[in-house]
Description:
Elements: H1 3-18, H2 22-34, H3 36-68, H4 72-92, H5 108-120, H6 124-132, H7 144-167, H8 169-175, H9 181-201
Helix pairs in contact: 1-7, 1-9, 2-3, 2-5, 2-7, 2-8, 3-5, 3-6, 3-7, 4-6, 4-9
Amino acid sequence: MDGYGVLLLIPVMMLLAALPSTSVALVVVRSARLGVVHGLWVAVGIVVADLLFAALALWGMSELAQQLGGLFALVRIAAGLWLVWFGISLIRSPGTALQARPITGSSKTVSFLAGLAVTLGDIKAIVFYASLFPLFVDMHAPDVAHLVAVLLITVFSVGGVKAVYALLAQRLVRRSNPRLQPPLSAIAGCAMIGAGAWLVTRP
């Protein structure tokens, strides 16, 4: 993973973290109702779950690459096609309103566990990570430094975006504009299509 890979991975992950979703709604609602600290604890739970998914994806893809050898190229192409399909579905979707199921309890532990549970319940996340990371890490000979860098980027990108949502929760609740959701989905979708096309066509 070189400097260009880092520059591409960070905005892609930030865009996806910023998309209206259940996790975003949970951060906003807990922060608006109980205070910014609770929104930040939800964000911590989300980041921990994302790190678990990222670690599983990196480990699993590395093992798969070593087992399959040259056939791993087929897995890489399949992953790239999945990213393209995911990007197209984002562009075609009308956007998701910020809605979250009520979470009982007002302790910081409840906020953390809520963020963790919501993210772990999204099984598509590990498929996404498994599809995205081969763009930036040589799965046949993974470098420990690169793997650590990917995990740190996950913390920075996902945690940073969710923290901003927590800090701006009150304003977002009052001024939520559904018209902004389709453009954001379109931008993220184009990024996914580009990443998938790169993954399919890279040597």
